[in-house]
Amino acid sequence: MDVHAHELIVVGGGLAGMRAVDEAGLLGVDVGWVSKIYPIRSHSGEAQGGINAALGNHPEGKDDSPERHAYDTVKGSDFLGDQDAIEIMTSQAPKTVVELEHWGVPFSRFDDGTIAQRPFGGAGFPRTCYGADRTGHFILHTLFQKYLTIKDKIHLYDEYYAIGLIIDDGVCKGLTAFNMRTGKLEAFISHAVVFATGGSGRNYGRTTNSYSSTGLGVTMPYWAGVPLKDMEFVQFHPTALVGKHILMTEGSRGEGGYLINNDGERFMKRYAPKFMEIAPRDVVSRSIETEIREGRGISHKDYVYLDLRHLGKKKINERLPGIKEICIDLLGIDPIYEPIPIRPAQHYTMGGIDCNNNCKTEVEGFYACGECACVSVHGANRLGGNSLLETTVFGEIAGHRAGMAVQGKGAPKEDGLVKDALTKKEKELEELYNRGGIESPYHIRDELHRVMDTKVQIFRNKEELESALKEIRALKKRFSNIRSVSQGNVFNYDKTWTLEILANLDISEVITIGALVREESRGSHSRTDYPKRDDEKWLKHTIARYTEDGPELSYKPVTFTKWQPEERKY
Amino acid sequence: MSEDRKKAVFKILRYDPEVDKKPHYETYEVPVDIGMTVLESLYYILENYDGSLAFRSSCRAAVCGSCGMKINGKFGLACRTLVENLKSVKVEPLANLPLIKDLVVDMTRFYEKYDYIAPYLVPKEIPKGKEFYQSPKDRGKMDGLVECILCGDCYAACTMCEWDPVFPGPFAMLAVDGKLKDSRDKLGNERISKVSDEHGIWRCHDEFNCMEACPKQLSPTEAVHHLKREAVKYRFISPKRKELTDETEIVPTAPPPEPLSARRSFLKTVFNGGVGLVAAGFLFLLTPLFSKQTRGWVPGWMKVGDVPDVDPKKPVEVLYSRQKWERGKLISYPQRAYIVKNESGGLSAIDPTCTHLGCTCYWDESINMFLCPCHGGAFDMKGNVTLGPPPTPLACLDVKIEGKTLYLRQEVV
């Protein structure tokens, strides 16, 4: 039996995880870092546009302040975000970005040598700090390099696939994980566990998320009894490359790109006359989808154009080189000369593991940060540029809080509990992998994608949601009859995908039920049968708990500090 | 799709360490849609034919660097290679790294090398509460160096990585150069010492394989060239040698070889002595290799232009064209020469073709020497070797001045 004992275990190799590891490492804590892929392969690296901080470097942003940033975020969240958490995030933002710069992030620069900032959706001032259109990649690599300076104190377990939390009597004791190289199940024990496992985009077929953002990281605690919050709020990014669903950064609109329909019209003037293309993502996505539904998609098909041609060669090459590269490589289109065909696609999971401002969950010793967590700073809709900020700010908080809690305790001693948990998990997997049925898990997943893409999407209604829920439950039944997985222990991705698909089914159920019950339209959740926001009844967080018969819902109040709900106009 | 879907035949290297003694190939037929990538095809195979097929993947947008592999003989990213126009696709794992299973290789060595070169910023004095100020120009110097996604394609394509397991590899050189050009970094040229020993930059053979393989169109070779130039400037030939600071006077590490003319008279002596005829003849045949090749070149004076104003301490670069017969045609080649003031106050001309392997040297003002970009050769203003592998001094050109016009001629051998 392989058991690894550390004071603290961090799961997830992306920005939030890295930041937590760094922070705990600085406290001298013995950290075990578990990631299913090598950290620099994480989805954080795909973030393009930038990271928000009220630095006031932009000539038009001199009056910007963390408070204005907080207000924009609250308004963007359609007043569902917890305002105390938002204020923590926005007040930490300038410090965080400057810190990242000191560590070596190659941000783009203004002529005066300060960090360059660009306008972004839903923001009153240009405050998104960027490094061309590779901001996430730059920050991820820089933080990884920083980890290399303290790597002696941290044990990295890369290509270890976390699959189950060990929780005993309301206290988190560790987790079980696959070693991909041997296919063996191993146990990790610690005084605290930090989850930074990213989003659950792969519940959808049309998603900008990577293959690794599956949502298993949210499902593990869900299965173990930790509640999830606000899962029905799923962000659709307005501009994803048609067919490939690859992200075309919001920065392309921030730099001045147009959205054009079949009539050659900049249709955003009808939906957000003031902000135009840089309205928040939920607004823009709905506008594009409406254009398509009303037959004004290009050639009456299901896409519109993102037009960058007027920006000129120099600006595109300098600020959006990644976008240009993707378009040329995959569609053979050069955005300097041709408009880019785009359509909204799933992009971000606002909901996640329910935790407080210190990233603590209701289970003792279990912390969550980043996209898998729901503090909640994004409420019903996240503003572009706030996700990188959340990962770094709350990654730091989680690492610090968890680190302080376990500091000096020494690695825990192994007890019978771990052995039991391992045997139990082994048995579960044995059963899952040898069902000997006829269904292919991948076909079930394709069906799930179809359901989620068509029925639990930007515009929702009771009828479709009910039918979606029925179909998901039918798929769950079908899943109990899956074929046995492929043999072999070394790098057997068939095994991990099967588990991920099982997780996808459960999370999709939580999303659908949450959306069905919430009879209002708020942020990214828009019900055609309840088109108005209903603050009286629904200004509250959805909490979902796992039971054998599906999620059990309850509600939790939203925290207010300075801003009372008002009509949201852009 | 109205007609039958197009199909592509995939030939994939398969190896399961638990079963197979050695790798073999298996073929699969995959229906291809417009815009389908190799990565999507691999997923098609995994999901429909064989769940045990192992390959790494994550972002599918060419930023995570997981899916580097060999596709139809070329290294690249599976998520960035379209199948559309290919009838058959041969997929193999990255080279130069140990194979674990199918298309999954052990990247440990690769990551260790990244760690070895210390890729992190060592900041100068940190401004309090403010970012470092960095001009857009300084930031621009890092363009093409910080976009690397560590996919390993260049490492697999590099022949030196195959020959010398200690060679850090193109990606590592690129990272070193990136930090070297970062105006915020304190270490500066100390960084070069990590890659300038006998397993380092000098082993790069300029094959440009890394550039061809790079899915981000970066140019590690160019970075290596920059590092080489910097290394020579600061004489970090090897970290084992005594490190010289800027103030140290540069002393030749080896006695300068005799100039060509002296060598010729030595040969004469050998002939006159009537000994070692064969060996001498052999040597004689070799001499043209060290001097300028004359075959096919049109002899005679070449017009350069107005006589330049030459500072006694600084050579002036001039361009002229030299003509050559090739397949019955007369072709002009642009050439470079440096005009220097000689001791008698007249002008001499130096041919900057390195006598080691024929790269073109350039004058570096910061250390007042001619530097060769390839293997660290250096020459003083007269063309004598001061450092590195060149066997002989730089060749001189004959100089003629008519009125105000300068003419050059290759030294007649």
Structure description:
The complex is a heterodimer of chains A (570) and B (413). With 570 residues, chain A is an alpha/beta fold. Among the domains of chain A are: 241-345, Flavocytochrome C3, Chain A, domain 1; 424-550, Methane Monooxygenase Hydroxylase, Chain G, domain 1. Chain A is 36% helix and 18% strand. In chain A, strands 7-3-2-11-18 form a five-stranded parallel beta sheet, with helices on one face. In chain A, strands 19-17-12-22-23 form a five-stranded mixed beta sheet. Chain A has a four-stranded mixed beta sheet with strand order 1-10-9-8. In chain A, strand 8 and strand 9 (171-179) form a beta hairpin. Chain A starts with a strand and ends in a 13-residue tail after the last strand. Chain B has three domains: 6-99, Beta-grasp domain (Ubiquitin-like (UB roll)); 108-233, Fumarate Reductase Iron-sulfur Protein, Chain B, domain 2 (Orthogonal Bundle); 260-410, Rieske [2Fe-2S] iron-sulphur domain (Rieske Iron-sulfur Protein, 3-layer Sandwich). Chain B is built from ten helices and 17 strands. Chain B has helices at 38-48, 108-116, 136-140, 153-157, 159-163, 170-180, 209-213, 220-233, 260-273, 277-290; strands at residues 6-14, 24-32, 68-71, 74-77, 88-92, 99-101, 104-105, 302-306, 316-326, 329-341, 347-350, 362-364, 369-371, 378-379, 385-387, 396-402, 405-410. In chain B, strands 8-17-16-11-10-9 form a six-stranded antiparallel beta sheet, with no helix packed on it. Chain B has a five-stranded mixed beta sheet with strand order 2-1-5-3-4. In chain B, helix 6 (170-180) crosses helix 8. Mean pLDDT of chain B is 84; it is low at 236-281 and 286-292. At the A-B interface, helix 3, helix 4, helix 10 and helix 15 of A face helix 1, helix 2 and helix 3 of B.
What's the SSE blueprint?
The complex is a heterodimer of chains A (570) and B (413).
Chain A: E1 3-5, E2 8-11, H1 15-26, E3 31-35, E4 51-52, H2 66-76, H3 83-103, E5 117-118, E6 128-129, H4 135-149, E7 154-158, E8 160-168, E9 171-179, E10 184-189, E11 192-195, H5 216-223, E12 228-229, E13 234-241, H6 251-254, E14 258-260, H7 268-271, H8 281-293, E15 304-307, H9 312-319, H10 321-331, E16 340-349, E17 352-354, E18 366-368, E19 373-374, H11 386-406, H12 416-433, H13 441-455, E20 459-460, H14 462-479, H15 493-517, E21 526-527, H16 535-538, E22 540-545, E23 552-557
Parallel strand pairs in A: 1-10, 2-3, 2-11, 3-7, 11-18, 17-19, 20-21
Antiparallel strand pairs in A: 4-6, 5-6, 8-9, 9-10, 12-17, 12-22, 13-16, 14-15, 15-16, 22-23
Helix pairs in contact in A: 1-4, 1-11, 2-3, 3-11, 5-15, 13-14, 13-15, 14-15
Chain B: E1 6-14, E2 24-32, H1 38-48, E3 68-71, E4 74-77, E5 88-92, E6 99-101, E7 104-105, H2 108-116, H3 136-140, H4 153-157, H5 159-163, H6 170-180, H7 209-213, H8 220-233, H9 260-273, H10 277-290, E8 302-306, E9 316-326, E10 329-341, E11 347-350, E12 362-364, E13 369-371, E14 378-379, E15 385-387, E16 396-402, E17 405-410
Parallel strand pairs in B: 1-5
Antiparallel strand pairs in B: 1-2, 3-4, 3-5, 6-7, 8-17, 9-10, 10-11, 11-16, 12-13, 13-14, 14-15, 16-17
Helix pairs in contact in B: 6-8
